[in-house]
Amino acid sequence: MTASLLVQLPQLIEQGRVVAAAALAEARETRATRETSEARETRAASTDRSVEPNLVYRGDNLAALASLVATAEVESAARAKLVYLDPPYDSGTDYRNRIETSIDGNTVALTQLAYRDRWLDGTAGYLRMLIPRLVLARELLCDDGALIVHLDWHASHLVRIVLDELFGRENFVNQLVWAYRSGGASRTSSVPRKHDELLLYRSTPNFRIRTLRERQLLDKPFIGSKKDAAGNHYVDTILRDVLEGVINLVEGDRVRPVSVRPVLNVSAERTGYATQKPEGLLELLLRWCTDAGDLVVDAFAGSGTTAAVAARLGRRFVSIDASARAEVITRARLDTQGCRYRVWREVQDAPGKIVLQQREGRLTLGDYTPASGLDELLIGQDTAPLTELAALAGWAVTGADGSYVSSWRSSRQAPATTLEAADPMVVEVFDLAGRVTEHRFDASATIENSAEAGSQ
């Protein structure tokens, strides 16, 4: 008979520490090798494994967190003020992304597997995945930093026991509640489960919450209430740890509505990424726990909401996810905001075939054939193979002078096929699944008419 999880937890925690220590030892060795390499100064940007912000990292978050810790051990600025983890919830469910493209003028909706929340050996296997990442996240924090782990009813009670052990019960700060009304609900088996739990732990007692206030309108005067310009009675109170709906955030002399409502299909924020969180929720978390210039690390970045909000609020960020599609969505959001960042990928995708034409400071994507297997990665398209520009999620051009331009597919329009690029150095072309074909220009050569390439 399998021992209960409470009996297994001490062993799972010890195993997690061992796995984290091994990952960190490897990261330290990698960093030491890189620092002593004679070729350090001549490495190409896309092969640079450093994890300095701002960074979009596609790969295993265990390796990424270990690399961050190894860097933070010698560079204090690389320590995080906030590490946010929105991992799978141990729900036993598969989650899919929604992707739209156009074939022969018709909009076609596709889906792609985002991630599987199923674990060998059940919840014990889930905890084996999560605990090493929690160990490394704690090591990454600065002295006055904090960790937030975003979960729901499936495993939050067990993860809180783990965090009590890793951080110490005295460093528990809050169990925040994000409440919502979206999605289906059982009528008889349970009271509808309509909230997530965000476990907030501090690195040390030096951590401080930044006070946020919300405005509450009153039906009639109350003790200490005031009147606004419209004649409404109101009172400003400290924002509590239950977040729902629209919060009237007080900012000096003005009040600004911040929505923490779920990202539904009709939402302007909707990217189609499964389990996407609202920007308003991440804004409140970042405002509570960080200041401008602080480093925020999201280890299960998904659609990149944390990075997008961090950039808008003037925080530095590292955004980590293993999904190719997550990279595409995150970069599209950051590019829309004009945010600059670097990219690291642990592996290179199978290349497709691209035809580029360069003329008078403009670069045109003349044709594109994705790598084989795209149709197998996507479900819902049964009218024609996904070829040529219908398979294109977007593309980006980095210039020799550091300039950067890009164009990405949205629900309303396809990517532009021509970009201003006077002196291109690297072109990245992404298919709908997020797989990238990269072409590098020879700095000593010029292209007068066209170039045809796979990945170089």
Helix and strand arrangement:
Elements: H1 5-36, E1 55-58, H2 61-72, E2 80-85, E3 94-103, E4 106-116, H3 122-140, E5 141-151, H4 156-167, E6 172-179, E7 195-202, E8 213-218, E9 226-227, E10 233-238, E11 242-243, E12 246-251, E13 254-259, H5 279-289, E14 295-298, H6 305-312, E15 316-321, H7 324-336, E16 342-345, E17 353-359, E18 362-369, H8 374-377, E19 378-379, E20 392-399, E21 404-408, E22 418-420, E23 424-431, E24 436-440, E25 450-453
Largest sheet: number of strands, sense, barrel closure: 9 strands, mixed
Please work out how many helical segments DSSP would assign. 8
The largest sheet has its strands arranged as 11-6-7-5-2-14-15-1-16
Q: Please compute the radius of gyration using only Cα atoms.
A: 24 Å
Shape: globular
Instruction: Label the structural class.
Output: alpha+beta
Amount of helix: 10-25%
Low-confidence stretches: 38-51, 443-451
How would you describe the overall organization of this protein?
This protein has 456 residues and is an alpha+beta fold. 24% of the residues lie in helices and 33% in strands. It contains 8 helices and 25 strands. The chain has helices at residues 5-36, 61-72, 122-140, 156-167, 279-289, 305-312, 324-336, 374-377; strands at residues 55-58, 80-85, 94-103, 106-116, 141-151, 172-179, 195-202, 213-218, 226-227, 233-238, 242-243, 246-251, 254-259, 295-298, 316-321, 342-345, 353-359, 362-369, 378-379, 392-399, 404-408, 418-420, 424-431, 436-440, 450-453. Strands 11-6-7-5-2-14-15-1-16 form a 9-stranded mixed β-sheet, with helices on both faces. The N and C termini lie far apart (54 Å).
